[in-house]
TrEMBL record:
GO terms for cellular component: cytosol. Gene3D superfamilies: Winged helix-like DNA-binding domain superfamily/Winged helix DNA-binding domain (1.10.10.10). The keyword NAD does not apply. This is Rrf2 family transcriptional regulator. The keyword DNA-binding applies. The lineage of its organism: Bacteria, Pseudomonadati, Planctomycetota, Planctomycetia, Planctomycetales. One of its GO terms (molecular function) is DNA-binding transcription factor activity. Signal peptide: none annotated.
Length: 96
């Protein structure tokens, strides 16, 4: 996450990790896109490896592409600040 620009890593005594930008400026969509190598969850999304014989006439591919876009758009609308709004409860859950 540090190499991707989301975190600042400090070594040594007193070191640790901190967000590189305010949590309100980091969308979950950005993080997911950086952490996942691709979103080709069906074979026909990849032109280089697709062997599906019905790709040219398939009516499902466009719906799946639209669904993938909607999924990522939904994640783009959520920031790290949004998902960590209740930090005390989150810290308590993680410490157990």
């Amino acid at each position: 996450m540090g190499q991707l620009g989301f975190l600042i890593n400090s070594r040594g005594r007193g070191g640790g990790v901190a967000l590189a930008r305010p949590s309100s400026e980091i969308s979950v969509g950005d993080v997911i896109r950086q952490m996942e190598s691709n979103f080709d969850f069906v074979e026909c999304f990849s032109e280089s490896t697709n062997t599906c014989p019905i790709t040219k006439v398939c009516g499902l591919k466009s719906a799946l592409l639209q669904a993938r876009g909607a999924f990522l758009a939904a994640l783009d609308s959520v920031t790290l600040a949004d998902v960590t709004v209740n930090r005390r409860a989150l810290a308590q859950l993680l410490s157990n």
